[in-house]
Amino acid sequence: CCLCGWDLEDLFDVSPIISCTKSLLEDLFKPHTLADLLDSYEDDTDVPISSNDVADCVRRGRELSRAARRRGNELVTNGINLEHYPPGIMHFFSGELPSDMKKAAETSNEILAATKLLQMKTSLDSNSTPNTFLSFLEHQGIRLQDSSCQPIRISCCDNKYRSIDGTCNNEEHPEWGRRGAPFTRIATPRYADGIYAMPVARSGRQLPNPRVLSTRLFSDQPILSRVLNNMNMQWGQFITHDLMFQAMEATDKGGIQCCLSDGKDVLPQEWQNEKCIPICVPDDDPFYRYHSVKCLNFVRSVTTPKDDCSLGYAEQMNTVSSYMDGSPIYGSDKKLASKLRTFIGGRLKQESRKNCLRGFLPTASDKTATCDLRNSSEPCYLAGDIRINQTPTLAMLHTLLLREHNRVADVLSDLNPLWSDERLYQEARRIVGAEIQHITYQEWLPTNFGEQYLRSYRISPTSLYTHDYRDDVNPGVINSFGAAAFRFLHTVISDNIMMCPSNYGAAYLYRLSDYYFNPSLLELTPDSFDDVVRGTVAQNAGESDPFCSGEITNLLFKSRNKWGMDLIAMDIQRGRDHGIASYNDYREICGLHRARTFQDLANEISQDRINALQYLYECVDDIDLFVGGALERDVPGSILGHTFQCIVAEQFYRTRIGDRYFYDNGEMPHSFTPDQLREIKKSSMARLICDNTDGVHYIQRKAFEVESAYNPKYSCDDHNAIPYVDLTAWKKPTIFD
Ligand code: HEM
Ligand SMILES: [Ca+2]
User: Fold this and answer.
1) I need a surface site. Which of 28, 50, 510, 714 has the fewest CB within 10 A?
2) Whose CA is nearest to atom 32 of ligand 1?
3) How close is the Cα of 171 to the center of ligand 2, in Å?
C-alpha cells in the first residue's frame, strides 16, 4: 500500500538536491551489500549494522542536508523569495526561529536524511517495507552520538513559579512541555516512506487535492450558531496559541517561495526548495480561476530531533510552551519575556493613548516585518506570541489580558508595598495564568463540548482543589490535535468583525480579509477598543459545520490582492505534512469500528457526505483525519463529532492532569490557599471584560454566548451576577511570607 523498495533513482527523482549530489550517494552505496546487513539483522547479532555504516549515513545525511540549506539560501539570494507574493509572505510573518530552535531544526533535518539513507541501504534489493525498517530502527535504537545532538538533560531547582519555557514543570521529565519539544503522537504516522515523505493513497497514487476537498466539502454558506458568539471563537484561538505553534521551514534569508510570484504556476523543479509542498489549484476552481491562480504557497513545518536523538520518523516542533500558562502574554523564552517587562512594580510594558484610560500593547520594533499596514501610523503590536497581529479580535483579547496582568500587579503592590518587582510579576503571572485555566475549564470547554463528556474524561470543574496530577502524563500537544482536530474550529470564523458603539444599539461590520495583520480597528477612535469588545460578544459565531467563510478559504492574508490563501486546504495539507494517521485509524483509536467500505461510516456521517467522500477518495482508508472528523455528526451537547471530541478531550485531559502547576492542584508547595483559590474560581470572561475596558458597563454573564432571554446582560457593578475576584487574600502580613 505504500511506496516500497526505494532505489537510488527514486531518490534522485524525489529530491532535486539529492540529484545534485548523486556522486556522493553512489559512493555511499557501492561498498555495501544489503544482504549482509539484513542477514545480520535477522541473526539478531549485537551489531546488525556496523557502526561505520551508521556513521557513514549520518555523515552523508549531514552533508546532504547542509547542501540543501545552502541551496535554499542561494535561491532566495537569486530572487526566489516571497517579496512579491503577499499572501505567502504574511504566512511567514512569524519571523525567524531563535538560534537554539534553528539549530535543533537543522539537526533534525540531518537525522531525517541519515534515516532515509539508512533505510535505502537496508532495503535495496529487498522487499522490505517502511514498517519493517522502522521496527528495525526501533529494535536497534540508533542514536546520533555527537555534539550536534545531545539527549536532553535539564537540571531544575524547586520553584514556586512556572518557568517561562515550560521546563521543570514535570520533575521526572523536566523536558516535557518545554518550548521546542516535539509534538506527541497517539498514532503511528502515515508518511509514505514511513519517515518523512508526504502520504499517498493506498494505491500509491496521490491523495485528493486539498483545494478540491476544500471547495467540494467546505463550501461558503453563512450558517450562524444560535448560541455561541465570536468571543468563543477568539478564546479558542488564544488557547491554541498558548498550547502550540508549529513554525514553517525558512531559509536563513527569509521565507520559502514555492509558486511563481503571481500564483500562476508551481515553480519549476530546479527552483523549488525541497521543503515546498505547494497546493495546486485546478483549472475549474470556483474562485481562483477568475484570477488565474494555480498555486498556493505552502511549506513544511519545522521538525525537531526526538529527546534521545534517535533516528526515526519526523516529529514536528512545538515552538512554544505547551502548558496552558499564558505564554502568549509572557512569551515562551526568557529573552522575549524580559523584553515585555518594565521591571517596575511587576508590570508588563504597555502604551497609553490619548483619551483612553487603559493601556495598549507595546509597539512592535519592526512594524513592516509583522504587520500589513496602510500607513506607518497604524498600530502593530508586540506580545509574547508572534501571531498577535493576525486579526484585530486576537489583538483585542491579548490587550484585555495584558491589562489584567497590570491591574492585578497594581492591586498586589497596593496590598504588599514591600514586594519586589520580581515577586509582583510572578504572582500576577500566576494569578492570570490561573484565570486563563479557570475560564477555559469552567466556562469555555463545557460551553463547547458539553458537561457530560467533560465528566467522562474527568476534566470537569471541581468545587475547590483537585488531587489528580500525574507525573506520568506528558502534557505535550498531540500532533493530531494541533494539525487536525482543533483546527475544525476554523469553520466557526465569521466573515466580519463587528463593532458596537456604547449602547450596543448599532453594529458596524468590517470584512475580516481587510484586516489580517492590521489591528487598526482597535484604535480608530478612543472608543474603538470597547466597540470591538462589545461587537465580539454580540456577534454570533459561525456554526461548527463543514461550511466555511470565503474570507478564510479564498481570501486568507489577501492584503491588497484580489485573492488570498485557503486555510482549510492548508489544514488538510498540514495534516499530511505532519504524517497524521488516517481518519480510519483514528476511528479505531477512539473506539469506533474501522470502516471497510465507505458505507460503514453511516453511523457517524450522513449519506450525502459519504457520497461526496466516495466521489473524492479512492479508498476509505485514504480519508484525511481533518476531513473525516469534520464531516461527522455532532455528539449531543458538543460542537464536535465523536472522533474530534475524543482527540480534543484527550488533549485537555493531558493539559490539566500533566501540569504540576495546574491552578487548582491541592497540597503542593505552590498551591493557592483555599481563600485564594475560591477567589480565582470567581473569575469569568465577563469579569475579565468588565475589569479591563473603559466603557463596557454591561455584559451577559455567559460571555461566550450571545445575549438571550436566559443569558441577559448585567451591570459590571452587579457583583452577584458577575462575581468580582477580590485579591485581599494575597495580602501577606510580612515580607517574609
Ligand atoms: C480568524 C481567526 C483565525 C485565523 C485567521 C487562523 C489562521 C490560522 C493559520 C494561518 C494557521 C497556520 C496554518 C498552517 O500553516 O498550517 C492556523 C493554525 C491553527 N489554528 Fe487557526 N486561525 C484562526 C482561528 C482559530 C481558532 C478559533 C482555532 C481553534 C479554536 C484555531 C486553531 C488552530 C490550530 C490548532 C492551528 C495549528 C497551530 C499550530 O500548531 O501552530 N484557529 N490558524
Ligand atoms: Ca503555553
Assistant:
1) 50
2) 487
3) 18
